[in-house]
Design brief:
mainly alpha, disordered C terminus, 8 helices
């Protein structure tokens, strides 16, 4: 159909711009292709790569996540989860990146680059957890201010969300 031809024309143009490292211009072309067909998997996938190259990791992750939910092919799923892991890793969401790499390996156990990235993400996650523990210990060791009357016996409370994040991270690492 004519619409499909226009869609492919925009994808090809986006790919040319992407090769020239003009990622913002490539993004525009991929979005034009999506105007013709909002479900165009190739345009969505390429758009996620263009966003990733622009360091817009959350946007790239959202697209990859939605593509993975609709994909059945194991090789394709492995590639999507690998890229999702990369975007989450760059966004310093190490726990989620570890999950994504594990999902990628479940689909394609032979993917050595994914295995390498998983090992790297696990090291980053471990370092992040150690830093959080050290920060906690420092907070607990700080001398209490004399002006704090009733609170002198209480440990500083973490925000609930921070507690939940740490619990999730610990659970994932086991």
């Amino acid at each position: 159909s004519l619409e499909a031809q226009k869609e492919n024309k925009h994808i090809r143009k986006g790919n040319e711009l992407y090769q020239q490292k003009k990622f913002d211009e490539a993004e525009i072309e991929y979005r034009k292709a999506l105007e013709k067909n909002k479900e165009a998997a190739k345009a969505l996938y390429n758009l996620s790569n263009a966003l990733y190259r622009q360091k817009r990791y959350k946007e790239a992750s959202a697209i990859l996540d939605s593509l993975a939910a609709k994909t059945k092919d194991p090789k394709e799923l492995s590639r999507l989860y690998h890229n999702l892991g990369n975007a989450l890793l760059e966004d310093k969401a190490y726990d989620k990146s570890v999950e994504a790499y594990k999902k990628a390996l479940k689909q394609d156990p032979t993917a050595e680059d994914t295995r390498y990235n998983l090992s790297y993400a696990l090291k980053k996650l471990q370092r992040q957890q150690q830093e959080q523990q050290q920060q906690q210990q420092k907070k607990q060791q700080q001398p209490k201010d004399n002006n704090q009357q009733k609170q002198t016996d209480q440990k500083p409370q973490q925000p609930k969300e921070e507690q939940r994040k740490q619990q999730i991270i610990r659970d994932e690492a086991e």
